[in-house]
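Let us practice reading a record.
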Amino acid sequence: MKNKILYGIIAIILIAGIVTFFIHGFNIGNVYGSYTKIGLYIETGVNKEEVTQIVNETFENKEALIQDVEYFGEMVLITLPQVTDEQIDSFLAKINEKYSLEYTKDDLDILNMPGQTFLEVAMPYVWPVAISVVLATAYMAIRYYSLGVLKVIGKSILSIIIIQAIIVSLYLIFNLPIDLSIVPAVLFGLGIAVLYTANKNNHLLDIKKQESEDN
């Protein structure tokens, strides 16, 4: 009964993930998505809180990353989902008004970066993940060879695929950004798959041992 409930929940998550993918696709975060970097230098010093307020007002509360660049607080780096020239003009006007400056766009370090597709994001991690999967399944095949090598490998790979599919589905369902967090999430899923498969195999070994003793 418990297994049926668990399988039902997994099926719902996977189906919801597929539906969500066709509705809005992946949410590529600032790290991999199209973004604009704005370097703002003010000789007399930059008040990070004031700049944050201006950024929120100008760029319609887009998710922004504001970092100190210089030790003396003279420069900040603002990273945003790609913005328009009009928004940059508005930001510049507010900065000039706030700090009594006469800056033009040439006084800002502006960098526009195109977004990457999910495939482009995933490619650097394909080989490391593939090697990890091969090592994990090889360990399972050696450790539980008495249960049947092909059966153990098949179950191990199936567990890895299902758990990774659940992780990707959760990213889709909750519209989580695909950023650097995806790496530990995938590795965590791989670990869970290995532990789950090992636990199931240990249970089967115990049953086989008990049957052998009874005979």
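A brief commentary: The radius of gyration is 26 Å.
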